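Box 3.1 A note on notation
Throughout this textbook, protein chains are presented in two layers. The first layer is the amino acid sequence; the second is a token string describing backbone geometry. Keep the layers aligned when reading.
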Amino acid sequence: MGSKPAPPPTPTIVMPTPTAPTLYRTMIPQESFQDVAALAKRLDEQIAGLQQARYQSVGTDADIGERMRGREEQEKASYLASLPGQTKDPGLLQVGTDVQGRPTTKGSGAVQTSMSAGQAEAVKTARSSLAQAQEAYKKAKAQKGKADPSLVDPTKFDPEYAKRSIDVFKMKA
């Protein structure tokens, strides 16, 4: 067992001598703000050009929406047409022969299909969804050709920081 370790030295706090605050002034010329505004305007024009190129290749958002609603309408109409009892199916004609052996038909052979309650409900639902799809297509067609409101118009680009007068940058006593 050895002896106790020596106690740690007392901390010494060293404070710097007080000095007067230093005042720094930064001068930013107005041309810098105008250059930033010109760059932003050029970027917005490029973005607008890219958006116009996209619209020419695939159409506007309204055009895309109209095509999508048209496809949905066609899907609903196809489904409705595929349900039983929606077409005038003549069925198979019964073929008979007369005394000379020539084929004759016995009646039209139109088959009356009896729909169960489930089939009738499916037809009712299909007609309802087709009507909704047709309404959505009409709304989408009405919006065709309208520009997206989020599209930036570079002609209206007017940043506030570039409109400051040069007096802002003058040194004040």
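The chain has a mean pLDDT of 75. Residues 16 and 101 are 128 Å apart (CA to CA).
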